[in-house]
Amino acid sequence: MYLKKLLIAIGIAAVVLSCSKEQTGQTREDKLSFHAQADCSDEPMKEAAVSVLAGTRTLYLKSSFDKEIDLFWQDAATYPWAKIEEFEPTGTKGVYRITLSYPDRYPGVWYARRVGTLSAVVPGKDFGVFLPVRQGATDRVVEDFSAWTYGSADPWSDISDTPLDNWTTALKDRGFSSEHVGSDTLGRCYGRVGYIRLGDKEAHRGSVLTPRNDSFRFDTLLMVSFRAAAFKEKVGSKDDNHFRVEVTGGGFIRDYAETEQTWIDLEAPYIQNKEDFFGSDSWFLVFIADSDSNQMTATTRIKIPPGTDTSEGCSRLFLDDISITRLVPDVDEDFYAENEGSGKDKIMTTINTE
Fold first, then answer.
1. Which residues in the chain come in under a pLDDT of 70?
2. What is the span of the domain harbouring residue 120?
3. What confidence score (pLDDT) does residue 258 get?
4. Is residue 282 a contact partner of residue 322, using CB atoms and an 8 Å limit?
5. How far apart are CA 89 and CA 92, in angstroms?
6. Last residue of a domain, which of 136, 151, 173?
7. Computed from CA positions of residues 174, 179, 185, 188, in that sequence, does the dihedral angle turn out positive or negative?
8. Closest to 280 measured CA to CA, from 321, 335, 336
9. Nearest CA to 228 among 272, 268, 194, 177?
10. Into how many domains does the chain fold?
11. Domain closes at, from 112, 136, 160
């Protein structure tokens, strides 16, 4: 029954569950609190965050009770994604050390938030405290293109290529769009089996724009994650592997905060002759920020066209696993600093995904 009460309360911010002296025989000095510092001199924690890379996090529990405390981990996963490795007294009266271990976030949802709860309770008493623990950040847009079944999964085949204009209504309703270049009557964003391709062998240029999201108007920092790989023949020629990521509708590339430049040019690896033709180095992160004079809005979108202003010839670009994640300063993990800015994803490529 007690655990059931705790589970019902998980969605609320960290709150001490305490009763008055008349109800339980306890005093207002009876306390339990989680802390980040070993001496517990810091303010009680309201929430905790762990890295998206596997590791451990040490926390501390301060108790005014003269009896042992029970500690539980709870989350909504079929198999709990974190584990209490250690819960022991530190040697200081009423202070316990907690070591929590957690795995990597896995491919496809590497930065998507998941939450669990540490619950500390006094056995036999209706008294406890719980701490939300999160890994990752809040997704605004997520697409793995698994619903796309056009043409072939083989990147060297262009049989039954289907441009965005001819996608089913259900797929168009997911919100992606493509600009027509010049007098071209088609947006050269082609649906494939489980991914999309921009551009074609006739050197038509394509682009893709991510869906609109009304919540962008409340955001100040975004992180765009995606996979990109450029076309090359199995033997012989290669396309131009440069591409651009541009912010439209408000916001700018965080790396250019001084000038508020709205685009960044990048280089994609070439497709590889194996089942995962994208390769493990195909992951990218691009960071978006805003200012008082250039705020994000409900019409903010990310545009990705292959090639650059000086590109010539073909520049076919394959894209997959596009996500846009909201980042909250001083709350979420500082992915911008960890990745040293926009470009190749240096955080997750520490994991062997081949």
1. 1-30, 107-109, 351-354
2. 2-136
3. 96
4. no
5. 7
6. 136
7. negative
8. 321
9. 268
10. 2
11. 136
